[in-house]
UniProtKB/TrEMBL annotation:
Protein name stated in the entry: SET domain-containing protein
PROSITE patterns in the cross-refs: SET (PS50280)
S-adenosyl-L-methionine in keyword set: yes
Keywords: Methyltransferase, S-adenosyl-L-methionine, Transferase
Amino acid sequence: MLCVTDKPEEGNAFGKATLADWQQVHGRLPPLLVRYLLSADQGDWFTRLVAYLLWVKKNAQGPWPMYINMLPKVDELTNLMNYRPDELEEFQSASFAALASQERTQIRDLHETLFSSSSGELKALKLADSLDDTVWGCCMVNSRGFSDVVNGETVSLLVPLADMANHSLSPNAAYRFNVEQDAFEISALQDVEVGTEACISYGCTGKDNRGLMRDYGFALPGNYNDRIPFSAGDDIASQLAAKAAGGTQGSQGRPSLDGWRLMATLGLGGRPSIGRYNLDTAADAARGDSEQDVAQRRRLAAVMSLNPFLRFPGLPRPGSGTAGIPEWSQTELQAERRSIDALLAQCSSMMASMPTSVETDEQLLAAAAAGGSGAGPQMNVRRQQAVRVRLENKNLLLAAQAVLQQYADSLS
């Protein structure tokens, strides 16, 4: 395995010992690389592990070439940093495109200043002849690296074969470095049937799909952490749109929904905390891969997206549902309906801003999977993944529309 200590200045005994063991088995590393890997004032754990991997890719013998050949090639990687400028429009999302562009710029800078064989600080090591080499190394470390604490020392690792374990919201296995056995282990957390895949948690349960695409190159269907960027209506763009539609500045006001009534209508439990609703318990109960669980997580993410607009007047009787909520006047009822309509209009506007429909995206992915021409000649793996991302964004919007419409119908 490849191992670096995250904070050498706080102790580097395990990192040094592991590096010495590696050299004893596989041969000596260049002094410049050793100094960099053990340095407390150069780079960080990420750049050190990338440098280590890039050197191994070019120079190591024994089992390492076989391992390197098993890893994805750069054209197969869908991490955001690997997207080209002409591919960003496939996301149909300004936030995804901006993050991908930012990631690409940062990695290009890192390549030129550190890893490049012609201009980088480590150019004597001939680590990366091209930007693609650096992108590959960075994607591998981002998506396949492990982090653990060994004897109080936080270390980052690349472990051949173990890094092929996939992520699951309901993992049936876990990893650790066994100090007593001096071995990295993946152990079952429960009885696993023969033929069932052993999956671990990547420790990314708090990441939205932007974070997952940045670090791992995949998006989770029904990601509870995704949020719809609803507008409060007080930004300049919304005010100009309202004016163009014949309204006055601020005439619509900020959308506001009765949190108690909405949650009771949807049959959701939980309590607000510091003015915000929390549905983590409900999300934990929907961690499976079934279509039902995916749909439930989308529904919960849609509701959580409404958090900035929820109000919780008073406190209804526990377990009373809508029966414990005071009746509304006609004025209050009309105001609630206007807020629902405003948020539904935002959903429709966001959906309309994306050039393709849900059905078109599904057809594109089906054609790509079948290897047919329906996906188009330029539908490489990055573009395919971008289509999956935008399809998930649309499905989340549809879930929000369904939630809001259900609430609207309950007020009729």
